[in-house]
Amino acid sequence: MSEEFKTSPYRRYKNDVETGSSGFDEDDHLGPFDIFRTKSASVDRLKRWRQAALVLNASRRFRYTLDLKKEEEKKQIIAKIRTHAQVIRAAFLFQEAGQQVSAAPKLPAPTPTGDHDSGPEQLATMTRDHDFSALQNYGGVNGLADTLKTSLDKGISGDDADILERKNVYGSNTYPRKKPRSFWRFLLDACRDTTLIILMIAAAASLALGIKSEGIKEGWYDGGSIALAVIIVIAVTAFSDYRQSLQFQVLNEEKQNIHMEVTRGGRRVQVSIFDIVVGDVIPLKIGDQVPADGVLISGHSLAVDESSMTGESKIVQKDHKAPFLMSGCKIADGYGTMLVTSVGINTEWGLLMASISEDNGEETPLQVRLNGVATFVGMVGLAVAVLVLVVLLARYFTGHSKATKDSPKYVAGKTSVSDAIDGAIKIFTVAVTIVVVAVPEGLPLAVTLTLAYSMRKMMADKALVRRLSACETMGSATTICSDKTGTLTMNVMTVTETYICGEKIDPSEKRSLPPKVASLLIEGIGQNTTGSVFMSEGGEVEVSGSPTEKAILQWGVNLGMAFDAVRSGSSIIHAFPFNSEKKRGGVAVQLPDSDIHVHWKGAAEIVLACCTRYINIDESLVPMDEDKRTLFKKSIEDMAAGSLRCVAFAYRTCEKAHVPDNEEELAHWTLPEDDLVLLGIVGLKDPCRPSVKIAVQLCIDAGIKVRMVTGDNLQTAKAIALECGILQSDADATLPNIIEGKTFREYSEAERLVVAEKISVMGRSSPNDKLLLVQALRKNGHVVAVTGDGTNDAPALHEADIGLAMGIQGTEVAKESSDIIILDDNFATVVKVVRWGRSVYANIQKFIQFQLTVNVAALVINVVAAVSAGDVPLNAVQLLWVNLIMDTLGALALATEPPTDHLMKRSPVGRREPLITNIMWRNLLIQAFYQITVLLVLNFEGKRILNLEHEEEDRATKVKNTLIFNAFVLSQLFNELNARKPDEINVFKGVTKNRLFMGIVGLTLILQVIIIMFLGKFTTTVRLSWKLWLVSIGIGIISWPLAAVGKLIPVPERPLSEFFTRKSTSRTTRETID
């Protein structure tokens, strides 16, 4: 393999702008339609391609692209609301300072509302203005809870009547949304097509002239038939667009439906963010979104990112002095609980959301490229239409266009003005209709159609697409960097091994631990956690929290832990929340006798490194010598080799004198983490998902390298990687295939680029290591997909080409930074997303092949006939019907093909690969050449071949043209089946599974029969005999064996475009040398 292809199969271009290391300005060297990554494209680049596109109907073409004008208006509205909020706060602070000087009287008591003692306006004002004195007026948080009839420990009762009453009094956690577009708006948009407007004007003129010359009974057909055809095109287009918009609407609602834990009736339950009510008590942890306005009940190291509201990227610490929490903000660090005081439109966030319109628009790279194709084809079509117009007008007014064999349509001085104008209008109408057919307006919209279809189906496959572009980019992915826990494994953890008092103890045995050790372990488990344990009235234990927390809490319950008693038996005075950098978390708890214990929990080898002693079976503190440390390390390695996650517990006492006694100093106190006493090490089993090995193998077969990036021990990661097939054997488990994050981090940038290619497993990695790996892979030309669930994964998710957040364990910060949310956290779902991504690209290529075949054939047939005979076999109404088959119905049929296993046996599609491949060119040219040849032969020799020479001239011409029209439409129908499988001989495989495709082909065929047999007056056709129907079907059906034979013709692997590029480059080089 050449050096050019070693780094990535698609690093074919030396100057790879996408990697950020190209060294030249993208805008200067690329065409307007060459935007390969819309995720971070500049506004200027987006404007540039819009200006370059040839568009007949801007409102329809750009409907699903980013509305740059609305985006600017949205920013201005957000800025106004933020300024408004800041002015209110500044005024309040000024007022508060004045009150302190003048000792202003207390605020008036709140106005009662129903059975509740405070109205939504007072509560909203208090939280919006951060009015601490108003909170004190309620009697602090405890008094406010009493006012809202809720318990700070157990929350509201949670029964339906209570929730309904709270919604009636305080409002629901929703905001008024702008009504979605009605069908009539889409109908209006469809009417704005420039060519259709021209056709309607021409139809009106033709109608007036026809009625004037032939009377209303016969004269309305020409103009009326065109008008009717245009109306049908408009109605079908509007219906198709309206249907798409409804699909996007459903997906948008699903995106906003965040689920959160709330405490109701003393237990934690999952509810939709829309069902949160005033009085709810909500536990918050790092990465959560604050779901409503409220006040802090209790918190430890709680820091909030308020940039979404204030616009300032400043992290704000929250405590009892600054307790107000704003809806829409994110928890940046720590954990705590909040009391909800305002919801929905009574919050600033609700006001903001209600003020800005939801713009679904976002162009995808494929959409932009297809606009380029549509523009090029449209320019050719426009030129052809002008040529046809000039030729036909010239022939008409010079008397070369014949009405019959011997009589011209126009004779100077004899033909009336109205007849001359009518003839010119008919010619003009044909030319305009050629533009309608030639400009593939539906081509870029086909992307939206297939994306809408794919997104709906992906939703059923447990994947929620947040960014349209990710759906298609996933089809180009060359590598997937996956988390281990919950993605490759089941995320159902249990403690299966324990090492306590220096001995291995089976947790399933009912063996009692020494009382002191058990007491300290239970204290550490119960206090150093973000989970909770609820004991129901029937005595059943309900454990909530992350899978790791749940497993440890369940083990604590098995040891005899009474969770509520542990929590009330001592109080947390300071906490260091679990940190993915340090891989551990700790708490300082004060006991009733004022003793202070500092408990640590985290990655076993990291906590062990901080320990200097351990407790033995006799409850004695024993110094940890080197032999004992080695023994503990060996036990950790053995557990890790058995694919167990190892967690260690340690503690130490702390003298009261060393603990700060004021709240401000305590908030910045660093928990002591040296001289710890090891209490125990546990091994948690998290089995591999049953489907993961097959999914990994599918990726390998599809040319996608799967890399595991985990914070777990390297030995645990290796064991899981072998189990799920990422590593094939122990022989693969060598540096740099398997590497620690710290080692990778310490390499230079150049070394990282080389090493990144070989990495299969990265253990003990930090989020920054994941980011460095993503950057290195992208610079090597890879299209990178990354999974993540933590807040700190956000930079890597954003940097990756496709960020995949976990729906169950993922934080809101991770989800907002992602492009797709994997709702079941399963790696097999990631592979399904790849299938759908490849399907999007494949379906668009099928549609391009089909549409361009129709374009080429229709244009060539009409041009050749116009130039040589002065007439066109396909008239305006017929071309409009062909346009409907090609644009709307063709897109519906081909853009909704489901993915096949065949797609996963190909290499990833390079994003710089030409849209029209050599295989497509071969298929397209064979079919177009066949159709053009047969139909032109019929056009020039049809009367002789069909024995129509003895019939009336007008009748013979109509039969011949009807046969050409019928054969042309049927050829497209048969070719539609060929387009389903561009590179497979069996085009019928799986066709019955796509009912929509079958339905559209069947409907088109029925409508074609109705047109030929019953609507001849409108389409200027005549009824065909059964023999001529057989001829039409025969002409169409030959396209099947022809396509099969054509697929045996080999094509060069090198794209055709490169041949022309190389030739023009070499010519330029020669000219420069000369």
UniProtKB/TrEMBL annotation:
The protein's topology relative to the membrane is: Multi-pass membrane protein
Q: Which Pfam families match?
A: CaATP_NAI (PF12515), Cation_ATPase (PF13246), Cation_ATPase_C (PF00689), Cation_ATPase_N (PF00690), E1-E2_ATPase (PF00122)
What Gene Ontology terms describe what this protein does at the molecular function level? ATP binding; ATP hydrolysis activity; calmodulin binding; metal ion binding; P-type calcium transporter activity
- Major location, coarse class? membrane
Domain Cation-transporting P-type ATPase N-terminal: from-to ranges = 131-211
Q: Where in the cell is it found?
A: Endomembrane system; Membrane
- State the Gene3D superfamilies in the record: 1.20.5.170, Calcium-transporting ATPase, cytoplasmic domain N, Calcium-transporting ATPase, cytoplasmic transduction domain A, Calcium-transporting ATPase, transmembrane domain, HAD superfamily/HAD-like
> Which reaction does this chain catalyze?
Ca(2+)(in) + ATP + H2O = Ca(2+)(out) + ADP + phosphate + H(+)
What InterPro entries does this protein map onto?
ATPase_P-typ_cation-transptr_C, ATPase_P-typ_cation-transptr_N, ATPase_P-typ_cyto_dom_N, ATPase_P-typ_P_site, ATPase_P-typ_TM_dom_sf, ATPase_P-typ_transduc_dom_A_sf, ATPase_P-type_domA, Ca_ATPase_N_dom
> Which EC number applies?
7.2.2.10
Can you quote a single GO CC term?
Answer: plasma membrane
Indicate what this protein is called per its UniProt record: Calcium-transporting ATPase
Q: Which organism is it from?
A: Apium graveolens (Celery)
